[in-house]
Amino acid sequence: MATQSRRLPEPAGLLIDRSTPVSFSFEGSCYSGFAGDTIASALVANGVTTLSRSFKLHRPRGVLSMCGHDANSLVQIGPRPNALADKVLITDGMAARGQNYFGSLKSDKAALLGLLGRFMPAGFYYKAFHTPKILWPFWEKVIRRVAGLGEVDLSHHHEYYDKEYLFADVCVVGGGPAGMAAALKAAESGAEVVLVDDMDALGGSLNYARFDVKGEVAAKARAKFVAEVEAQPNIRVMTRTMCNGWFFDNWLPLVGDRRLHKLRAKALVVATGTIDQHVVFHNNDLPGVMMASAAQRLIRLYGVRPGTRAVVVTTNGDGYGAALDLLDAGVDVACVVDLRAEPATDERYEAVLQKAHIPIFSNSAVREAIPLPGNKGVRAVDVARVVGDGQLAAQSDRFECDLVAMAGGYNPFAALVYQAGGQLSYDEDAAMFGIAGLPEHLFAAGSVDGAFHLDAVNESGRIAGWAAAKDVGFEAGRKPAGRAKKGTAEQNIAWPMFPHPKAKEFIDFDEDLQIKDIVNTIAEGFDHIELQKRFSTVGMGPSQGRHSLLPSVRINARENGRNVDETGVTTQRSPISQITISHLAGRIFDPVRVTPMHHRHLDLGARMMTAGVWMRPEYYGTPGNRADSILREVNSVRENVGVIDVSTLGSLVIQGPDAAEFLERVYTFAYKKQPLGRARYVLMTDQSGVITDDGVACRLHDDHFYVTATTSGADAVYRTMLWFNAQWRLKVNVINATASYAAVNIGGPNARKVMEKIDSDINLSSEAFPYMGVREGRLGDIPATIMRIGFVGELGYEIHVPSAQGEALWDALFEAGAEFGIMPFGIEAQRLLRLEKGHIIISQDTDGLTTPHEADMAWALSRKKPFFVGERSIDIQTARGLGRKLIGFELVDPQATVPLEAHLTLRGNEIVGRLTSVGRSPTLDKVIGLGYVAPDQAEVGTEFDIKVAHGEIVKGRVAKLPFYDPDGERQEL
Amino acid sequence: MKILTCPLNGPRNISEFVYGGEVVDMPDPNRCSTDEWADYVFLENNTAGVVREWWYHAPTAYWFIAERDTVSEEVIRTYDAGTVFKERVEFSKPEPSADSDAPKKD
Domain of B37: which CATH number? Predict the structure, then answer.
C-alpha cells in the first residue's frame, strides 16, 4: 500500500508543513502525515475513509464536515475519549483508535444491529426492556455495554488545565471575512478587540471556498485581511479557541487547548457563519458522502484528494465552486445534481457547464447512494427528477462514483444569538432562518446574518464593527455603506429530503434518525418541537442539531400543518461544542484559611483537617495511633491542663447606644441588664424559630459587647445582623473582627496555675475572676480579653488576643505550662469533652428544623423583652406541641454494637428521630450520645430502639444531662 | 455572569453578592394573625415582573435594594436601603388585658 496515496502535490495544503513528516497509528496500523494534518485529513490522505461506527446501528461513518461539526469523526486517543478527528492535529507517536465497536472498527460485530434497525425506531427503549420485569437486570448490563461512545480511563491523572480572566471592549467571534472586517473596523476607532476563531488559522470560508472561476478571489481576500489584522496592535487574535456559550452581560467562555478564558466583553460581534447542510436520501451516511466544503477543505487546507470520481449534489452556486475545485485536484466529476428547478446562473455554473462539459441535472435529486459491500463506501448514485416535495420520478440514471459532495444549503450558526436572547425567524422564500432581533450590546455580521456574497459579507462586517465600537463609546465616524446584494435567497431549497422505501435517509447522523423516526414521533403524540426532541433524541447528540435541526423542524411544521416560523426551534444552551471536564475543573485549587498558630500545630505533629474553609488540628499524632492520641488529649484536659486553638470562632464587636437593644432583638436571651465584666450565652434563631447559631456575649462597656459566633456561622451571623439593622436603623455598629483575633481555650484543673505563672495585670483568683466573668488586660505584653466559660466542663479560660500575637500567646502558655506537662488538644478531643457535658454543636445536634424547645434550650428564651427574631414562630410551634425532643442517652447493654451518628431512633415501627452525636466517654468509660426521640420517650430512664447497620436493633436509655460533673463544680473552681 | 451595580461600589460580578429575598414589610409579630405570620415567614409571591429585593455585597458588607424584572432579568435600578427605611423601628408587646373578651393572637 502506497503511503499517502491521496496526497496532492504542492502547493495544495494551506495548513500542512511538508517538511515535517509525522507518524501516528490508527486502529493499530501505522500511517504518516505532515505537521498540520488532523487525524482525519492524514487518514484520508492514506486512503482510510472509515472513522467510526454510528451510535445505534453501527454503520461505518467517514468524513462529513471536516471542521468538527459532526460526530462521525469521534475517535479515542489513548485515555482521551470522543476526540474530533477532524480537529485534533497528529503528533509523532499518537495512537488513535475508533470507538463504539465490538471487535474492530473494520469488522464490528455489532453491525448486526444495523439489520435490526426496523425494531429500533425512535424511542423504542421506552417500550422495550421493561417487561418481563425479571429480564431488566440482563438488559441493563447489555445496554450499559452497548451505549456510549468513547471509554474513560479511570486511572488517568488530571493534567494541567487552567483558567484566565480577560477583558475586551469588543469581542468578535468568528475569524472569517465578516469577523476580520468587524475587528478591523472596531480596532480602528481605538477599541481593544479580541478576535476568536475555533480553526487553526484565520480566514473562515476564505480558506476553502471558491467564489470565482479562477479560484483566486478567496485567497487574495484572505491574504489582505490577515495582513491587516496582524498589523493592528489593538486586535488580539485567539485561534484554536471556541466561544462555547453566552452568559449574562457578554460573559464568554473561550475554550483553548489547556486554558479556559473567561472574557467580559462590553460588546459582542457574532460572525460565526453558517453550518453546511446535507441532503437527505437513502444511504446518505456512507463514507464518501460528505459536504462539498469538506471536500474543498481536504483539497485546499490539507492537500488531500477526497475521492477518485465524484457526483456533486447542490442547491446553490457553491456546489459549482466545489466541482471546479474537484476538477483542479484531479477528481473526475461524473455530474452535478442541482435540486433547484431553475439554477441561478453564475460564472461558476457556466464554467462547469461550458468548459468542463459535465452533465448538469436541474430539478433533480439523488434517490439513493449504492453502497460498497459492508457499507464501507459509495459505489454509485441513482439520480432522478424531482416531481414534488420529497417525491422523485420512477426513472433514474446511475452514476458510478466514490465521492458524493453535498452543497445542501446553509443554516446560520446562531447559537450565541439564541443564548443571548436574540430572535430568529424563518423566511419561506429563502427557506432559511434569519436574525429578527438582537439584544443590547450584541451585533451580527456575515452569513450568520444572511450575507453570502463576499461584498455584502465585508460590508456587514464593517457595519457591525462600527456599531460595536460606537456602542462601547468610541468615536467610530460615519456608518459604513451597506448596499451590496446579500444573496440570502439563493442558497437553500425548502424540501431537500427524499423518503425511500428502505428508509436509511438520515436526518440526524449522531442518533441514526431517519425521516420516518421524526414522522412517527409526531404520530405518537410528541408533536411539540421540544417533545419531539426528547422522544426521538433528534439534536441531542454531539453535533447538537447542527445538521438535524433544519430537516426535523421542517418535517415537524408540515406534519402539524404549521409553518416553520410558527414551529420555532428547541432552546439552545451552552456548551455549543464539546468540552472536557478538565477545562471546567481547571487547576483544582482549593483555598483554605489557616489560623495564626498554624505552624505551631504542624510543629507539634497535628493531623490537620478541613473544618469548613479552615484548617484545624483533628488530633496531635499519627493515623496509626489516632484513638490513643484523642484519649490522651481528653484525659489531659480532665486531669491536668490542655490548650486548643479556637481562633476560627467568629468575633463580632457590637458597639453603640443601642448595642444591648440590638443584641436583645437578634438573640433570644436578655442583655440590657447584663453586668460589665460578665459573659452570657447567646442563642440565635431565624424568623421561623429555628436555631441558627450560638456563642457568648461579653459586656466590656455599657455600649460595647464582644460577641463570639460559631466558626461556620460567623459570616452569616454578621450578614444577618447587618440586614436587620438596615431595616431597624438602630444606633449600633457591628464589626466582624474574626480575622483580627487569635484565640485559645486553656482548660483543666491546673489551668489557673499555668495562667498565674504568666506576668499579668489580671487577678486570676476565683473570687476576683469567677465563672462567666470577663477581664481585659495583658498576658506578658500581649493585650488580651479573657472569659471563663465552660464548653468542655473544666476550669478554663478562653483568651482572645490580636491575631499577630497568636503565636506569642501560644508560646507563653506552653512555656508556663511546661512544668505541668501541658498538652495541645484538637477538634476530636473537644467534641468528646463537650459531649460528656451534653453541650450541643449547632448543625450537628441541630438541623434545619430544630427549635429551642426541642433542644431543651427554653431557658435561653427571655420573655421579658418586646421582641426577638423567631419569638412569634416559637410561640406558634410551642402551642402546637413538640414533634421530637433532643435527649442524652447511654446504651442499655454496654457490650452492644456501638451505634453511629444518623442511625435512626424508633418507637415501635415508627421512625421518630436519629442520633446526632455518639462517642465513647473515656472519663465515664461508656458510650454516650445525643439524639432525637419522640416527646413521650424523652423522660430520663425511658428505653428506646436504635436501628444500627444491617437492621440490628440496639437499645438506648435516656440519661440525665450533663453526663459528667452534673453540678458543674469543676468548671466553677 | 451577570453584572450587578452596587450603589456603593459600582458594577461588580454577581458572584460578589448574596441574595436576601424580597423586600417585604414585616407584620407586627406581636399583633398579627398566625396566617399573616406564616405567610411572611414561608411564602413568596414569585412575581413575574418587577420586584424589589435585597442584595448584599459580601466583600464590603453592604446591604442594598435592587429593582429587578424577573422575566427579562434586567436590573432596573439599585439604591441604598435608607431610601426606603428611614425611621427607627420599635417593637412592643400588647398590654395584657384582664378583659376575657380581649382579642386572641391566633
Answer: 3.30.2270.10
